[in-house]
Design brief:
The complex is a heterodimer of chains A (790) and B (132).
Chain A lengths: L4 H6 L15 H21 L3 H15 L4 E8 L2 E6 L8 H12 L6 E5 L2 H6 L8 E8 L5 E9 L6 H40 L3 E6 L4 E4 L1 H7 L3 H4 L29 E7 L4 E9 L7 E8 L1 H16 L3 E5 L5 E4 L1 H6 L5 H5 L4 H4 L3 H14 L1 E10 L5 E12 L5 E10 L1 H23 L3 E6 L4 E4 L1 H5 L4 H4 L13 H12 L4 E9 L5 E12 L5 E10 L1 H46 L5 H28 L7 E3 L1 H18 L3 E5 L7 E3 L1 H22 L4 E9 L2 E8 L27 H11 L3 E6 L6 E8 L3 H13 L1
Parallel strand pairs in A: 22-24
Antiparallel strand pairs in A: 1-2, 1-5, 3-4, 4-5, 6-7, 6-10, 8-9, 9-10, 11-12, 11-15, 13-14, 14-15, 16-17, 16-20, 18-19, 19-20, 21-23, 24-25, 25-27, 26-27
Helix pairs in contact in A: 2-3, 2-6, 3-6, 18-19, 19-22, 20-21, 21-22
Chain B lengths: L12 E4 L3 H13 L4 E4 L2 H10 L4 E5 L8 H11 L7 E5 L5 H10 L3 E3 L4 H12 L3
Parallel strand pairs in B: 1-2, 1-3, 3-4, 4-5
Classes of the chains: A alpha+beta (790), B alpha/beta (132).
Chain lengths: 790, 132
């Protein structure tokens, strides 16, 4: 396919046409052909343009073989270039060329003649009308088909001489085509090489030994703002503005000319270059020096920024081998581990000291191999001084092509302080927990609405269930009459004030009411606002009761002393009154009318004496006659004394006596007096109500004491606290001295027991309870010894 | 206890008592029955009188102000005048005191508790000292 047919066609023939060559003799032809061949050889050597050469070649071949027209097809790989003699074919050129190229590919022989089709032949303007196309193969020395020459001529047959001539021409053409190809390849490669060099962004400059620039690449020239050729021949010194190494040499980039290779960094005011230098040839006339300047300013800047960041960061950064040896660390890391310098830490022998638990290290490596990345990994390291460093690390593994870990990169935080703080916190928490769990007080936390949000172990030990604690209102436990106080205390606490030792009655887990001492403390959130209240509750019921008992017995003892004193003081005047009244009554001189008055004095004195006797009975600490006593027997005897009254007044007495009640040591008479007194009281109380009276007498043994309780459904007691006080009576004047129960109190106390009374809860009447100790072997023995010693 | 022989009915009864109204009553009651009465108003004075003379018997209050009480008078008599030991009558206005009780129980000495009737007194006196 003619690539540039029009251009080729325009080429002008320089060689003169020889239409009369047939007239020459054979010898002359041979001589001329020899000339033509020689000229061809010369042309081949001189010609620079392939097209021109091939045109000339075709002209000569036409002349030498008496042809009308000729052309050469040149194969360039799959493409075909066609160079034919222009002008001669006129309008037939294009179809002729087409036919010739189509046939040329089919030719297998070295030389072959084909009949020219009539339409092609007819189109030719030649007067002799060629009928044949002679194809001659142009092959390279290695048989590669380089092209095909084609000649149009009249005679089809080729003489032997003509064939030899054609072969000679073909080999000439082959030689020339090969040369042309080599030359153009060389040219192309040279041009490409320069382009490649120019394409390199690094600055390249070559100078000779006279320090003159031989060549630069385009990058360098454009950096200086000049075309590359402008620099050739200039002195190397003119490039000093780019950068310099600081030597006195005429080249700013040379340092040591004795070295074949050099590489160093040179800087200018603005840029940083990595200069790679090569020196070629022996150091003589032809030696040249090539400098390649790589602008590493940005890289250096990035590196510097990276390093600055690396070193300024507060967290420890490190690169390490899988074995734990550090490859690079930042300053923070050095500081953390307590080393003097980076170099010290990078030493190989540091790692055994660094990892106090080698097994932990192995575990770490396994985890890293498995996951590739470890987040918030906790590792304990040993500082240079031996103290432990608790760290939190973020680690990533760098693997090689086979997946083996080759490097470990990580970021490390010193959490030692947090760790010790945490440990301290844990200790405090444990300590607080222990206190909370072992204290004998109930500790609860209430939210601002007064709902229980926490209860310590003691609460559960006291019998409360979680279901009745958490989420419930503590105030619901508090006795109704005390709720206002409790609300007030909560209010005070909500305002940030502490409330100490608030005493109130509250419901225990078993439903009974107890005395509690309650302290409330506010707890604040981060904003300092009270968000909950800590309540410490202590059951002080026993203490309160004990205190009340103590106060009571102290009161009774005081009253006893007072009464004793009064009785004694009263007895003397009373003795005189009684005595003198007796004497007066004995005196016959006293008139009868006066005697009646004296008898009244006598009677009232007698009454006063009885009162004083009762008082003294209460106060008297008469030694108890200690003998074995069956309480049931004493009770039955006492009941018997009043049974007539009970029956006749419809008072029902029930006995609930515990079987096998142990004996007590005591004074039968005195105990009978006590029980009688209590029964009398019960009888009077039920009589007053008018309803059917019931008296229930129960006995049981409890805690080494025999307990006798007498309950009635009578009027109850106006003031149980004062019932045992002397002269305290609710009975009508004259019906009782108010000393009966005081005397009972004295007797029971003298027996080492106690007497109590209260109004029945949720029912009418009251209950008296008498407790006296069970006779033990030792107390029996002591009593027996005393009996014997009397 | 059997009645005492009237060995020294002529001798007076020593009355140790600090309360004037009681002394007056006792003296009146005893003198009307024919007994001679010598009076001491404290334990110490009583002991002095005991040293000075002979008595048909001693009637002493137990609780008296001063250094010597009835029990101590009794103790002195037991040691120094044993012949009088069975002729002592104690008067008490306060038998609540456990020491007094123990003393009375141990010594077996007759005791009259204040206030008492004249008949009670005379009965005990006649039984202990005999008739005048």
């Amino acid at each position: 396919m003619p690539k540039d047919g029009a251009k080729t066609g325009r080429l002008q023939s320089k060689a003169p046409s020889r239409p009369d060559m047939k007239a020459h003799s054979a010898a002359a032809v041979a001589e001329r052909n020899a000339d033509e061949l020689m000229s061809l050889a010369v042309e081949a050597a001189q010609s620079r343009h392939l097209a021109h050469f091939l045109e000339q070649f075709a002209q000569r071949s036409v002349r030498m073989l008496e042809a009308d027209w000729g052309g050469v097809a040149v194969y360039q790989g799959r493409e075909t270039e066609f160079y034919g003699i222009p002008g001669k074919l006129g309008p037939a050129f294009e179809p002729a060329e087409k036919w010739m190229l189509a046939n040329a590919r089919e030719i297998r022989d070295e030389i072959e003649a084909r009949t020219l089709p009539k339409e092609i032949a007819g189109g030719l303007s030649s007067p002799e009308k060629p009928a044949t196309a002679v194809f001659v193969r142009i092959a390279a020395s290695d048989k590669e088909k380089l092209g095909m020459m084609c000649l149009f001529r009249k005679q089809k047959t080729l003489r032997g001489e003509e064939k030899r001539l054609l072969r000679a021409l073909a080999s000439h053409a082959a030689l020339s085509l090969e040369n042309f190809r080599r030359f153009s390849q060389l040219e192309k490669s040279k041009r490409q090489w320069v382009e490649d060099i120019d394409a390199i962004s690094d600055y390249i400059v070559v100078h000779d030994r006279t320090w003159r620039i031989v060549r630069t690449n385009r990058s360098l020239a454009s950096y200086l703002g000049v075309p590359p050729v402008a620099l050739v021949g200039e002195a190397m010194n003119s490039l000093r503005q780019i950068a310099e190494t600081g030597t006195d040499l005429p080249c700013p980039f040379c340092r040591d000319t004795q070295l074949a290779r050099e590489e160093y960094v040179a800087t200018s005011a603005e840029r940083i270059f990595l200069i790679s230098t090569s020196r070629t040839g022996v150091p003589d006339d032809d030696s040249r020096t090539i400098h390649v300047l790589k602008d590493i300013t940005d890289r250096r800047k990035a590196e510097r920024q990276y390093r600055e960041l690396f070193d300024s960061i507060q967290e420890g950064l490190f690169f390490a081998t899988p074995e734990g040896r550090f490859l690079d660390v930042n300053d923070a890391m050095v500081r953390m581990l307590g080393y003097g310098s980076r170099e010290e830490l990078l030493r190989a022998d540091v790692s055994p000291h660094l990892y106090p638990v080698p097994e932990a290290r192995e575990k770490f490596l396994r985890a890293l191999a498995e996951r590739g990345v470890l987040r918030n990994y906790e590792e304990t390291l040993r500082r240079k001084d031996g103290t432990l460093l608790h760290t939190l690390q973020n680690i990533s593994a760098v693997r090689d092509a086979r997946g083996h870990i080759v490097q470990i990169r990580g970021l490390m935080l010193d959490v030692t302080e947090q760790k010790s703080f945490q440990a301290q916190l844990q200790r405090e928490r444990d300590f607080n927990q222990k206190i909370l769990n072992t204290t004998q007080s109930m500790i609860l936390v209430l939210d601002t609405a007064g709902l229980i949000s926490y209860a310590n172990r003691r609460c559960y030990e006291a019998g409360y269930q979680e279901s009745e604690l958490i989420g419930h209102r503590l105030v619901d436990w508090v006795e109704a009459s005390h709720r206002e106080d409790f609300h007030g205390a909560l209010e005070t606490t909500a305002h940030g004030q502490q409330v100490e030792n608030l005493e109130l009655r509250a419901r225990r887990s078993d439903g009974s009411m107890g005395h509690f001492s309650i302290s409330l403390s506010p707890m604040r959130d981060e904003q300092n606002a009270v968000n909950s209240v800590v309540v410490v509750m202590t059951d002080i019921t026993d203490a309160v009761l004990l205190q009340a008992k103590l106060a009571h017995s102290e009161k009774m003892a005081t009253i006893g002393r007072l009464v004793s004193g009064v009785a004694h003081e009263v007895n003397n005047p009373l003795a005189a009154i009684l005595g003198f009244t007796d004497l007066l009554l004995e005196n016959p001189e006293v008139p009868l009318s006066a005697q009646d008055d004296l008898k009244i004095i006598l009677q009232e004195t007698q009454r006063t004496k009885d009162i004083v006797q009762d008082l003294l009975s209460f106060a008297r600490q008469r030694p108890v006659q200690r003998e074995l006593m069956q309480v049931h027997q004493v009770l039955r005897q006492t009941i018997k004394l009043r049974s007539y009254d009970f029956a006749s007044h419809g008072v029902e007495v029930t006995e609930e006596f515990e079987e096998d009640l142990p004996s007590a040591l005591g004074d039968l008479q005195q105990m009978q007096q006590v029980f009688l007194n209590i029964l009398n009281n019960a009888y009077d109380a039920v009589q007053e109500t008018g309803r059917r009276g019931r008296i229930k007498i129960q006995t049981r043994e409890q805690g080494g004491m025999i307990e006798v309780s007498v309950s009635d459904n009578g009027t109850g007691i106006a003031d149980p606290q004062r019932i045992f006080d002397p002269f305290y009576t609710t009975k009508q004047p004259g019906k009782g001295t108010g000393l009966g129960l005081s005397i009972c109190y004295g007797i029971v106390r003298a027996h080492g027991g106690e007497i109590q009374c209260w109004n029945n809860e949720g029912g009418a009447g009251s209950t008296f309870v008498v407790r006296i100790p069970v006779a033990t072997e030792s107390t029996q023995a002591a009593a027996a010894a005393k009996e014997a010693g009397r | 206890m059997s009645a005492q022989p009237a060995i020294s009915v002529k001798a007076p009864i020593l009355l140790i008592e600090d309360e004037p109204s009681v002394i007056a009553f006792l003296r009146a009651a005893l003198e009307r029955r024919g007994y001679a009465v010598v009076h001491a108003s404290s334990g110490e004075e009583g002991l002095k009188q005991l040293l000075l003379g002979q008595y048909a018997g001693v009637i002493s209050d137990i609780r008296m102000p001063g250094a010597v009480n009835g029990a101590e008078v009794h103790e002195w008599i037991r040691k120094n005048r044993p012949e009088l030991r069975s002729r002592v009558i104690l008067i008490s206005g306060d038998t609540a005191n456990s020491e007094t009780q123990a003393f009375l129980a141990q010594s077996g000495t007759p005791c009259i508790e204040k206030p008492f009737r004249v008949q009670q007194l005379i009965a005990v006196v006649e039984k202990t000292f005999g008739r005048p």
